[in-house]
Amino acid sequence: MDSFYEYLLKSYILFGEKEDYRMFTAAYESIQSHLRRGREACNEGEGDPPLYVNVNMFNGQIINTWIDSLQAFFPGLQVLNGDVENAICLHAFYYAIWKRFGALPERYNWQLQAPDVLFYPLRPELVESTYLLYQATKNPFYLHVGMDILESLEKNTKVRCGYATLHHVVDKSKEDRMESFFLSETCKYLYLLFDEDNPLHKSESKYIFTTEGHVVPIDQRFREKSWEDQFPCEEPNNEPPANISNCERIPEERRYGLPLKSIYMRQIDHMVGLS
What we know:
Blueprint: H1 2-15, H2 18-34, E1 36-37, E2 51-52, E3 66-68, H3 74-80, H4 84-101, E4 107-109, E5 114-117, H5 125-137, H6 141-156, E6 158-159, E7 162-163, H7 180-194, E8 207-209, E9 215-217, H8 227-230, H9 262-271
Helix pairs in contact: 1-2, 3-4, 3-5, 4-5, 4-9, 5-6, 5-7
């Protein structure tokens, strides 16, 4: 389901399809209402850190206590939607899991503080969110996260002919397998994270990434619909914002400190079993 939410938003950005943005907004509001648990604000107040859980689609009750590594893409999507504060909080949770194991287990049980599925196939989602959060905030903390991930990959997954899937994130045993998304996404987002002078970063946001990390230009030609001249249709009144790139910016005074207050960072570390 991850790509469905992603493409609702990205198709609006790319093609200007207002119905796609309305569907994304409805889905995002539903996620916030039914899947989000924890305190209301990311960086203030009391209570558990925000977390998105799996629920029964008929009654909204928690159906299990695991999350999977693919969900680590969600902070990046929140950045694109301008919800930077919530992105910071969820990213910190996944990064804490990475710090504990030097990788992301495919499925992690947040109640037991232990992996349910132990392998890590070099997935890119955490790196992707790290890259997008750095672009949004320019906080050097995310360069530190990227370096931590890179060093873990070099230490735990590098082999003679490439980088290997971790069969077991605890004992670091490996499989004879390197998925194609490792090169097309994991390495690409790590490279772009540290390459400040890359042309993509000088393009005034004229490019967007597909869910598989391909670069697509944002071009007015993609928004031209020749059939509308012959078959005009009435648009509903609930218009999406004219420019959704005006995201909720992080205040300048927070740019060079921890993105979360240290007390909340420690709370998240404790939540995943880090001392």
